[in-house]
Design a protein that fits this description.
mainly alpha, 6 helices, elongated
Amino acid sequence: MKLVILLQIAAVLHGGLVCAGATMPRAVQLRQNLQSLPVFVRRLFWVYYGFIGFLLVSLGVLTWVYAGAMAAGLPVARGLSLFMALFWLMRLGAAAFLLDVRPYLTTPLYRLGNHALNLVFIYLAVLYSWTAWEAGML
């Protein structure tokens, strides 16, 4: 039961990431920065941005709906847990080694938000890894 609750918290955190992502274009002046790019590249970026939002919503919904199955280690749920563990580990790695957000952390609120995002990435990576481990996938 404890793992189910932790997974439901993770599902809600996915929604929080969607909300945080919705604030990102304004925080980094995305529209202005994309103006110098060709129309195709701008549209491609926005399509990718939308797909990432859709993925986050989907991961949250799947986690909420199948938290019990994931905690119980049912076969498909084990695969889902492993996929999510790898996804969030890669996202955490991107945050740590590829994405330098320091120039955009211009206010205390942005700095706090960045730390909160990284804590959420760590929580999700650890929780889904633990869920996959408990289910016998790792």
